[in-house]
Amino acid sequence: MALRPKTRDRIVQESLTLFNVQGERNVTTNHIAAHLGMSPGNLYYHFRNKQEIIAELFALYEAQVDGFLRLPEGREVTVEDKTFYLEALLAAMWQYRFLHRDLEHLLESDPELAARYRLFAQRCLDHAQIIYRGFVHAGILLMNDAQVEALSLNSWIIVTSWVRFLCTTRTESADLSEDMLRRGIYQVLALEGGYLAPEVQPAVRALYERLYVPLELVIPD
């Protein structure tokens, strides 16, 4: 028989659901407690305020990204690794989409979280450059160091701003879908198009087709 999740873990996971669906600004600790069928006092026993729940969720997101944003050990990267990185990014963006949607507000509300995020962002940019250099070393991308740096930064800008861009085109942010985020990952892949080695282009073309979502399904008329 499956064990019932611990109360603290239930608070974290259900808060994530509420933040993703309703938006973090629209959810209070009272809403979370009512959703879980517990008293606010019971919730405060585990978390003193909403900022602590958000910090816990950010730690989970941070660990998930740190876990995949690294070169494989003992071998060169392949085109198949490109699929892995992009799909892993999509999964993280979708699972923690409220962080992307409400990022500026969250960082303004919590200086400690803002400091953690700055370190996380720099680490992601550093790792992204290492990974892109791995693709260059493997002969998959044809780029110099300046181009690697620019591609890493542009990719980061798209990944971190895509959800907010979607919200500017829709009347209700709750109607975001995973396909809409998939188009954002496609945009990251599209940045690499001019740098692909000729011999890998057929294999990467299949990845383009896998990630492509028509723009009319992303931006409503």
TrEMBL record:
<dbReference type="Pfam" id="PF13972">
    <property type="entry name" value="TetR"/>
</dbReference>
<dbReference type="Pfam" id="PF00440">
    <property type="entry name" value="TetR_N"/>
</dbReference>
<dbReference type="InterPro" id="IPR050109">
    <property type="entry name" value="HTH-type_TetR-like_transc_reg"/>
</dbReference>
<protein>
    <submittedName>
        <fullName>TetR/AcrR family transcriptional regulator</fullName>
    </submittedName>
</protein>
<keyword id="KW-0238">DNA-binding</keyword>
<feature type="domain" description="HTH tetR-type">
    <location>
        <begin position="5"/>
        <end position="65"/>
    </location>
</feature>
<feature type="DNA-binding region" description="H-T-H motif">
    <location>
        <begin position="28"/>
        <end position="47"/>
    </location>
</feature>
<dbReference type="InterPro" id="IPR009057">
    <property type="entry name" value="Homeodomain-like_sf"/>
</dbReference>
<dbReference type="InterPro" id="IPR001647">
    <property type="entry name" value="HTH_TetR"/>
</dbReference>
<dbReference type="InterPro" id="IPR025722">
    <property type="entry name" value="TetR"/>
</dbReference>
